[in-house]
Amino acid sequence: MGMFMFLCEECYDSKPRIISKRSKENLAVCSNLTARHPFDDNKCLVHVVRSANVRYSKVRPLHPLCQFDVCRHEVRYGCQREDSCSFAHSVIELKCWVLQQDTGITHEEIVQESKRHWHRLEQNVQRPKPMHVPPLNNMGGGGDGAAAAEEEEEEEKSGA
Ligand SMILES: [Zn+2]
Ligand SMILES: [Zn+2]
Predict the structure, then answer these.
(1) CA of 133 to the centre of ligand 1 (A)
(2) 24 CA distance to ligand 1 centroid (A)?
(3) What is the pLDDT of residue 154?
(4) What is the 3-state secondary structure of the chain?
(5) Is the pLDDT of residue 45 over 80?
(6) Average pLDDT in the 124-147 region?
(7) N or C: which end of the chain has fewer CB within 10 A?
C-alpha cells in the first residue's frame, strides 16, 4: 500500500537519485536548492511505499507505444533502456497505464485521489473520542523524508 506524489524528475533521474518535491518557499521550482529545476516542467509521478524503508518507483505517463506488460529485463537485472522502454517497469506502473487507458484519469487526478484516500484512512485510524476536544489545527505536515537516501545497489561498470 503506497501513495502517489509528484517529484522532480531531473533530480529523480540524477545519479545518485535525489528525492525533491515542490519547494514550499517557491512553488515554481523543486526543493533541490542547488538546482532549482522548474517543477511543473519536470515533475513526474512517483509511487511511494513506506515500509521498513522507503521505496520509490516512477510512473511514466501512458502513451500510444506503451506495452501492457511488465518489462522482463527490468525485473531481472534492470533495464538498460530506462525511460525509453515501452514496457512497464513495475507492476504499479502497469496498473496506472491500465487505469489511464480505461478511465482517462490524469496523473494530477491520481495524486489527488491518493491524497484523499490517505486522508480518509488517517481519519479512520485516529477515531476522535466522543468528547468536547478543541480541534487541532494540524494542517498538512507529516513525516517529511526529504533526503531519503534509498538506492538500489547499482553495480555499474563504466568501461570507458
Ligand atoms: Zn530538481
Ligand atoms: Zn524495460
Answers:
(1) 42
(2) 13
(3) 44
(4) CCEEEEEEHHHHHCCCCCCCCECCCCCCEECCCCCCCEHHHHEEEEEEEECCCEEEEEECCCCCCCEEEECHHHHHHCCCCHHHCCEECCHHHHHHHHHHHHHCCCHHHHHHHHHHHHHHHHHHHCCCCCCCCCCCCCCCCCCCCCCCCCCCCCCCCCCC
(5) yes
(6) 58
(7) C
